Amino acid sequence: EEDEEEEEEEEEAEGTLIQDHTETDLVSLRRTIYLTIMSSLNFEEAGHKLNQIRLEAGQEMELCVMILGCCTEERTYRSFYG
Question: What spatial distance separates the first Cα and last Cα of the chain, rounded to whole Å?
Fold first, then answer.
């Protein structure tokens, strides 16, 4: 009887798919993009470093959003952003 119960519990555990809704990957990506932009000396260095970041499908838009976000944080115009 105990063996049967253990087998049923194992089958239930194998069928359960855990989904992470905390978006830690997105937060990490945003942090990486922000730090890359802010630590770059010029736009060429930033572009080169940003090209080296491995983006998954659908994350390209997040890169654009972060570039615009960094640009809007500046108090005055910087030619860095174009």
Answer: 71
pTM for this predicted structure: 0.70
Report residue 27: phi and psi, to 5°.
Answer: -65, -40
Dihedral (CA of 17, 23, 29, 35) sign: negative
Q: Which of 22, 4, 20, 1 is nearest to 12 (CA)?
A: 4
Q: How far apart are CA 81 and CA 74, in angstroms?
A: 10
Query: Which tens digits make up the pLDDT trace of 18-72?
Result: 777 788 889 999 999 999 999 999 999 999 999 999 998 889 999 999 999 999 9
Q: Give me the residue spans of the domains in the chain.
A: 21-81
Mapped onto helix, strand or coil, the DSSP state of residue 69 is: helix
CA–CA distance, 20 with 82 (Å, rounded to integer): 37
